[in-house]
Design brief:
The chain has 290 residues and is of the alpha/beta class. It has helices spanning 70-73, 95-102, 106-112, 128-141, 159-165, 178-185, 189-201, 220-233, 248-254, 272-280; strands spanning 7-17, 25-30, 51-54, 86-89, 91-94, 115-119, 145-150, 168-172, 206-212, 237-242, 284-287.
Length: 290
């Protein structure tokens, strides 16, 4: 298929990101994820299809009674909403159109050592994978640094092609126990590690990412298990991501329940034991997200 015809569903393009692959970056969020992390900060990207979102604060109840839920009770299509309270999340983009938008800030990339990053959802899951590879390759052809944020716990159609197109893989290490990871997240740790061995063997640059979440990934045993696995794979750097509540409001807009409502955010002092566990294995640890 010609790249100009290949399309993906994108929910957002975020500019001037500083913790998504080095330097100043522009990040595209692709829609669709096979996993279900209770703390997900992008619930609008769980479904692979465009879906409606409703913001009650903007609703003037022009087509339903006050107190109703616009996702369920409002008969008006999002395209006809006069205030933008109801809107469709996710828009089909073709490769060149998206890359044109992503590289508009190339001057900032060049000055800061930045580039573009693909995120999600899971940007390598299912049909997202072919689209993501094409976007990465087009950005490379234009001389732009590329990165992806991924679990890497999905089948890879062509690891060599991924490594050639992607300058940096930011790979999640969440629940270390394979059994609990499958039970809670639906995420196969063994598949991720097999993929990591494959791409590292091809010369990929990889940074591990550790989201530290109360009740799920916070705890010394989990930190040590992840640190040992990261060291065993030969990865030398890990970004530690303290739990935050930046995505909480998105759950109400998307009509989804939020398991982490009211859970306090974490700061750098709360993840000091994780940093210690990583450094004890000889891994450079960098705390992000505050």
């Amino acid at each position: 298929m010609d790249e100009g015809e290949l399309a993906g569903i994108v929910t957002n393009v975020q500019r001037f990101s500083l913790h998504d692959g080095g330097g100043i970056r522009t990040v595209a969020f692709l829609k669709g994820c096979p996993f279900r992390c209770p703390w997900c900060c992008n619930p609008e990207n769980l479904s692979f299809e465009p879906e409606p979102s409703w913001k009650s604060r903007l609703c003037i109840h022009c087509a339903m009674a006050p107190g109703g839920n616009g996702l369920i009770d409002c008969p008006r299509p999002a395209s006809e909403c006069p205030t933008g309270a109801k809107e469709m999340v996710g828009r089909e983009r073709d490769v060149r159109e998206l890359v044109d938008e992503l590289v508009r800030d190339r001057t900032f990339f060049d000055e800061s050592g930045g580039g573009i990053t693909l995120s999600g959802g899971e940007c390598l899951a299912g049909r997202n994978q072919e689209f993501s590879l094409a976007v990465l390759e087009e950005a490379h052809r234009r001389g732009v640094h590329t990165a992806v944020e991924t679990t890497l716990a999905v089948p890879l159609a062509d690891p060599e092609r991924l490594v050639a197109a992607c300058d940096l893989l930011l790979v999640d290490f969440k629940i270390a126990s394979p059994g609990r990871s499958m039970a809670v997240l639906g995420l196969d740790v063994g598949l991720r590690d097999a993929n990591l061995r494959a791409v590292l063997g091809l010369g990929a640059a990889v940074v591990a990412r550790l989201p530290i979440v109360p009740g799920f990934t916070r705890g010394l045993a989990n930190a040590r298990a992840n640190a040992e696995r990261i060291r065993g794979l030969g990865i030398s750097r890990a970004d530690v991501l303290p739990f935050h509540q930046l995505g909480e409001a998105k759950y109400a807009s998307s009509g989804r329940g939020y398991a982490m409502a009211g859970v306090p955010q974490l700061g750098s002092s709360d993840v000091a034991d994780v940093v210690d566990a990583l450094e004890a294995e000889g891994i450079e640890a960098v705390v992000h997200g505050e």
